[in-house]
Amino acid sequence: MEEAEVLRRLQGAGGAPRLLASSGAAARSQAMLTTFCGAHTFEDLVGVARNDQEMLHALLLLCRALQQLHRRGYVHNDLKDNNVVVRREQSDGRLHVSIIDLGLARRKGVPLFATRRDQARSWMAPELFECEPCRASMDVFSLGSLVWQVLGMCRDNYPLLNCMADEAMAEDPRHRPSIKAIKRALKSFLQPHPSSLPPLHPSLHTRLRSFFRKFTNKN
């Protein structure tokens, strides 16, 4: 089973499910057992994310997950809302993203289809159907489609991100931005999480503590 082999090689990269067991290629009935990533996907993002910031942050997490997948030498080829799991960690309240359903994933440089066919899936890169070798820019096309979808759920408007999504879905893959560029655009609209801020310098921390002591004593 090709997907089982992909999961075995990924070892959880991109938040992908971990393979626990599979029936093997010789079995009459193909089956596999994997870890469970979560009950909600990007289809439910508006109900999981509390605000625009969290929606954009979920997209940033997806970019990072996709980069992990590509570093392992794989292209997903079927990135869409119900193939991306989003969950909130109970311990710290943070969002986590997992890429699932890797049935169409292929190694970089290997074509998905052996013969040309009509483009029946709008979220998939058009060159996939021309039997071109799989490469990261194909997932960028699908990522652009997801960015558009998530922006439609946001309360505010983000014209720059809309333009970025349009560029990501360019018919010519040479005109698509890199995932790194998309991450940079998303980060420009995100406020830093308190835990990610640099710690106070010890001397500043001491001065602040002294100030609050004086303030408390006066009152």
From TrEMBL:
- Asked if the record carries the keyword Kinase, the reply is yes
Which Gene Ontology terms cover its molecular function? ATP binding; protein serine/threonine kinase activity
| SUPFAM superfamilies on file | Protein kinase-like (PK-like)
Q: Which PROSITE patterns match?
A: PROTEIN_KINASE_DOM (PS50011), PROTEIN_KINASE_ST (PS00108)
| Keywords linked to the UniProt accession | Kinase, Transferase
SMART domains (alphabetical) = S_TKc
> Where is the Protein kinase domain positioned along the sequence?
1-212
Q: What is this protein called?
A: Serine/threonine-protein kinase STY46
Instruction: Tell me what organism the protein belongs to.
Output: Chionoecetes opilio
Which lineage ranks, top first, belong to the organism behind this chain?
A: Eukaryota, Metazoa, Ecdysozoa, Arthropoda, Crustacea
